Amino acid sequence: MSTTTAHTPERTWKGRALSAVKRQEAGLLGVIIVLGLLVTLANDNFLSKDNLYNVLQTVVVVGIIAVGQTFVLIAKEIDLSVGSVLALSAVSAGAAYGNGVNPWLAMAIGIGVGALSGFAVGSVVVLGRVSSFIVTLGMLSIARGLTQLITGGLPQTMPSELSFIGQGRVLGGIPVSVIIFLVLVILGQLLLTRTVFGLRVTAVGDNDAAARTSGIPVGRTRILTFVLIGTLAGVAGIVFSTQVGVAEAQAGLGYELDVIAAAVIGGASLSGGRGSIIGAFLGACLLGVLRNAFILLALSPFLQQLSIGLVIVLAALFDQWRQGNLRHFSLGNLRQRLANRTNA
């Protein structure tokens, strides 16, 4: 009896430590810190205030959309159209301003276009019972084509009144866009963990049949997740276009993969039912730190793509380990399989 009691605190301590390690956010934060320290040893400019602000500013656009993508992935869906919707929202705002619309109203129009795009996608997915992969792949081309029609291939000037969103700095040099990003992360985390909508999204992604039996409006919940990511893609489009000063039809090319990577690295499961907005924030930051490290260390951009791909694969494996799905890959099981094949 005394022996069991003596080992209980140790087991409790080990259990708590393992539980903490298994949290995606804790692991990501540790990776970011270690990577930052290693880069600092090679180039002490990494920890400069200006460089850290620059890292955050470069991940703002991807990070904002990753907040919405996390909700979509938790609901067991996916959105591949976010880069094109970003561009469509930005050029819609620029075109509205160019036709004499008030700058703030033009911004609202751009964000509204993003929300409408999300509603269209969600409606087709739910009412048409079509895979979100296929629908958003189609929307990717539709939205990109619409941007070309609106702009005729020419950049749209953004209102100077909105330039502070992408270029302004406050509180001793903190970019306004970074503050917007952090606010959206906090609101997203609260929405996911402290509201009925967030609980419904998790329930739908975990088991939609059980959620439907419990009275949760499964279809409406899924549509709202697409409206949310479309709205955030619109916000990201405004931030991006005000950073560069113009709205271009080619804006956001390839952002779909970065957004999904940030969300998955942050702990969002492709099988639905699980995800973290804080994790998505850290996932976006990890991608930013990696890219910044390659620039500071003057390494090949091809290695950059390779490293990001490895990080995504490792994050997916970590998620499987956390769920206990890698037990069949143990050394003992491997030896047993080899022995069985040999005996056969």
Keywords:
cell membrane; two-stranded antiparallel sheet; disordered N terminus; 15 helices; mainly alpha; 4 strands; 344 residues; two-stranded antiparallel ribbon; transmembrane helix; ABC_transp_permease; membrane; ABC transporter permease
Structural summary, described in words:
This protein is an all-alpha fold and 344 residues long. Helix content is 76%, strand content 2%. The protein contains 15 helices and 4 strands. It has helices spanning 2-22, 24-42, 49-74, 82-98, 103-127, 132-151, 163-167, 176-194, 196-206, 208-213, 218-244, 255-265, 277-296, 301-322, 331-343, and strands at residues 156-157, 169-170, 174-175, 246-247. The radius of gyration is 22 Å and the shape is globular. The N and C termini lie far apart (47 Å). Mean pLDDT is 86; it is low at 1-10. Keywords: Cell membrane, Membrane, Transmembrane, Transmembrane helix.
Quick summary of this structure?
By secondary structure, the protein is an all-alpha fold. It has 15 helices and four strands.
User: How are the strands of the biggest sheet laid out side by side?
Assistant: 1-4
What is the overall pLDDT average? 86
First-residue to last-residue Cα separation: 47 Å
Count of separate DSSP helical elements: 15
Helix content: over 70%
Largest sheet: 2 strands, antiparallel
What structural category arises from helix and sheet content? mainly alpha
Number of beta-strand segments? 4
Low-pLDDT sequence parts: 1-10
Tell me the strand percentage band: under 5%
String of helices and strands = HHHHHHEHEEHHHHEHHHH
Shape, principal axes of CA atoms? globular
Radius of gyration: 22 Å
